[in-house]
Amino acid sequence: MPLKAVVGGVEKDAARAEITINGVQKRVTRIEAWNGSAWKVVQAFVLPMSVSASPSGTITTERVQNLELCISYAVTAVPSGGLAPFTYAWTVLSGAFTASSATMAKTTFRATLDYGQSTSGTARCTVTDSLGTQVTVDVPVLLANFG
After folding, report:
1. How far is Cα 88 from Cα 137, in angstroms, rounded to an integer?
2. pLDDT tens figures, 120-131
3. How far apart are CA 78 and CA 93, in angstroms?
4. Cα distance between residue 28 and residue 102, in whole Å
5. What is the predicted pLDDT for the residue at 15?
6. What domains can you pick out in the chain, each with its CATH number?
């Protein structure tokens, strides 16, 4: 539902809105209306949503604990655009490991491996913004227990 604005007597669709507060121009990200019991977003002005992983590239073993538990370096899903707040869901697409913080932006991956063993695969983070828009990023993972 596009927001209509009247400019110079001509009705136009608004894709962006700005307001001046104390002499400073600010971008409006949403317009909300009170429905009698709660505020409801009636129009959002958001940039297209995307997500990247930091660091990028293969996430590898940082340390081995208890001679078997391999833990990766941390990886963070970094959304841009969309409308905060964001939710995060890390899932393992392939490989024998788990995400330690499956619902947080930042996670590590863990696997129990005997000495000399390794596992590799792919993890995916699905990021959802407050409007329900979802984007994903896939992360290659390699965990190894070589002491």
Report:
1. 11
2. 999 999 999 988
3. 19
4. 32
5. 64
6. 3-44 (no CATH), 50-144 (2.60.40.60)
